[in-house]
Amino acid sequence: MTRTDLNIGLFGFGVVGQGLHAVLARTPGLRARIGRIAVKNRGKARSLPAEVFTYDKNDLLSDPGLTVIVELIDDADEAYLIVKEALLRGKAVVTANKKMLAEHLPELIEIQQTTGTPLLYESAACASLPVIRNLEEYYDTDLLESVEGIVNGSTNYILTAMHRDAQPYAAALARAQELGFAESDPALDVEGLDARNKLVLLLAHAFGAVVAPAELLAVGITSISELATAYAREQGLIIKLVAEARRLPGGGLAAAVLPTLVRPGHELAQVHDEFNGLITQSTFADRQFFLGRGAGAFPTASAVLSDLSALTYGYRYAYKKIHQNAHLVLAPDAAEVDVLVTFDDASGAPDRADFVAVHQEFRSAQRGNYLTGTIGLGQLARASWLRAPGVCVVRLASPLRAAVAVPAALEEAAVA
Ligand SMILES: NC(=O)C1=CN([C@@H]2O[C@H](COP(=O)(O)OP(=O)(O)OC[C@H]3O[C@@H](n4cnc5c(N)ncnc54)[C@H](OP(=O)(O)O)[C@@H]3O)[C@@H](O)[C@H]2O)C=CC1
Ligand SMILES: N[C@@H](CC=O)C(=O)O
């Protein structure tokens, strides 16, 4: 096998960009060198000589000597323009930018297919965990039934600090930012949007379903109430932010990001701090669990490094499942979820008519109110009370599952 040398144009020299620089310096076996680095702020002190840096993206994009673009900036809109331009100019691209990927995946897949130029992004889903290439290659023929896990390091860091170390939320978030785990806009982390972007990538590579982020229900950790935390503690359970995608027996896919009650013996209960954990369930391999660091300079750079190495032997994603599973589409109205809903009287109670069944209801002027019940996933996403102030929704420990009555439209789609 011939392996090519890589001459890299690097965009971004922040947490991950600097991590990559350090990692490459310690990996002489990979014949890769960073030729030039594009950054944004002229006033910033840099750890490398000034001549390495440029503030003009075209210095990298139009340099024929730079054959690979590594995009590690924190601006998804600008990243999209850079990545698209690089691919159209025939430069292979490695990116960690899950927001940009999730928002533009159909177009970026099409550009890869028409140009034949690779775009790799292992670090964009679960940082150091080798997830994307495994879903794409190892599970290319095994029938995946579900992928489920903790895919955001910052929120797991915050929830761990609050649960294990009794730290206040604000202090835990500030520490996640200091450690370089959080996005520049941490709302992406704490509102579940970063996890949703990663779920978009997992859906494409696990099931061949290319969906827009807005099609997926995502609830973050900011609405988790004291009552929900107390409920979890009393039941001996732990709250984790879990992304889940599951193939439904009647055809279709259910997928969502929700704070979730996890039992102590469950794999995800062992995922602490900024670690991520992903469980795959497949027909032949059965259950597997990936665990590793989900954020931070070196863990993320290690996945970028692995993509660079893959480029040297001509690797590109084939998006095999898109061709295999053309019929697999999101079907939130064919799925149900068991939830705990806490609410105060001022915000108004969730509409009981939205539920397939209400299992338990508790009201207390002192402690607050809650109910537990089963609700359609699509109905939950549409519920007007879901985002009301004072309302907290946490998934109970059971997975997403097929609704008892499958909508007729989906049954027809499954037959076709
Ligand atoms: N941090 C992590 O653990 C992980 C991050 N990621 C993703 O990696 C990417 C980078 O994250 P991270 O390193 O943490 O971010 P940082 O905020 O630490 O660094 C961002 C870098 O991007 C540069 N930049 C911003 N806009 C531009 C632009 N228009 N042109 C050129 N350079 C620009 C900044 O320049 P300047 O130095 O001048 O300010 C800075 O060097 C993001 O997409 C993030 O989502 C993915 C997995 C994990
Ligand atoms: N902000 C992200 C960084 C890695 O993807 C996270 O916390 O997971």
From TrEMBL:
Q: Is the keyword NADP in the record?
A: yes
SUPFAM superfamilies, per the entry: Glyceraldehyde-3-phosphate dehydrogenase-like, C-terminal domain (SSF55347), NAD(P)-binding Rossmann-fold domains (SSF51735)
Q: What class of enzyme is it?
A: oxidoreductase
Q: Which residues form the Aspartate/homoserine dehydrogenase NAD-binding domain?
A: 12-122
Matching entries from InterPro entries are given as: Asp/hSer_DH_NAD-bd, HDH_cat, HDH_CS, NAD(P)-bd_dom_sf
Q: In which pathway does it act?
A: Amino-acid biosynthesis; L-methionine biosynthesis via de novo pathway; L-homoserine from L-aspartate: step 3/3; Amino-acid biosynthesis; L-threonine biosynthesis; L-threonine from L-aspartate: step 3/5
- Keywords in alphabetical order, please: Amino-acid biosynthesis, Methionine biosynthesis, NADP, Oxidoreductase, Threonine biosynthesis
- Pfam families from the entry? Homoserine_dh, NAD_binding_3
Start and end residues of each Homoserine dehydrogenase catalytic domain: 130-308
> Where would one find coiled-coil regions in this protein?
none
Catalyzed reactions per annotation: L-homoserine + NADP(+) = L-aspartate 4-semialdehyde + NADPH + H(+)
Cross-referenced PROSITE patterns: HOMOSER_DHGENASE (PS01042)
Provide the E.C. number(s) assigned to this enzyme: 1.1.1.3
What family does this belong to?
Belongs to the homoserine dehydrogenase family.
Q: What's the protein here called?
A: Homoserine dehydrogenase
